[in-house]
Amino acid sequence: MSSAERKQKREMQKLMNRSPEERFNWLMSLKNGTGCILLVEDKYRVYRRMETEFDDLAGLTPEEAGDFSHVEECAALRDECKTIADELEKDLPEDIPVISRTEMMSAGQRQEHDKNSGNQKPNVFRWVLLGILVFGIALAVCRKIPVTRGLIGEVENFIGIKSLAIKSFRVSGEENGGWDRALEVEKQVIASADIGKKVKFGKLDWVILDHKNDSTLLIVKEAIKDRAYHKHSENVTWSNSSLRKHLNGSFLKHQFFPKEADAIADTESADTENESFFTKDTPTMKDKVFIASEEDYRKYGEVLGDMSKNMRLRTPGKTMDTTVFVSALNEAIDQGFPVDQKGAYVRPMIWVNTK
To answer: pTM score > 0.70 for this model?
Structure first.
């Protein structure tokens, strides 16, 4: 490529607002993903294109390069891409035409060609097509690569596929900021969901019960059916129950992904009293995970609907070795249910900081 042609090409790249550093990073991302391309003709075209682009970057003058420090590296990368393209050319099917570097137009050259020939497409249309192409390639061949999976997550989030975006961010890993981005999107989903709607947080499905001051109250969708309130039949409060220990220990550790537990607020459970038998529980500790009191059941009963059937509450029953529960008829039974029996279902609740 002559110096005049290089100059014209660089001018077109400036018009497209792509700096040498941006072009280099784009090319390196493309190069890192070529191992996932299956068809030899597709891989051949990609390497020929990279050969052309790296050659252009390698020809930058010091004034044109500015802070760009990869000029010499681009020359080596150009030669590497040419060698690979030449080898791939030998394996091309007979009906695939051979492409020389001088025949392949860059994005800037193609724009100038279209302009001169009267075939220029609207910018918006071109970028939409480019976005679809990039998204399709990424989904097809790069979903298992952590770095590119993060980029896929950004695209999925932008077009509104939040659940897939969260998974992609998690796969991209902590070192790439993926865990923080996954939590950020989760918070957005939770904060924008209507009361009564189901959301995913951690490894479980939850139902929105309330929004308050940049926090959202969630209750688990599928109840825990094989867990007693306490290991032994004895007088017990929520603060020293084995259920509280389990929910804020093993449950919290295993049901949430990294970073999520930190977004769960420490909540001081309110005092709860059995109005029929005057037994009372006054919690003395803050918890991330808790269960509803009888007061909570009355407040959120309409949202809970049939979910509250057979649900255990933390309000004491007639005696302190029992707790109030909700019957299959959706009525609170103040007489209580033994703390050491598993017949009443457990539905954990959490307040999530969504700010």
So the answer is: no
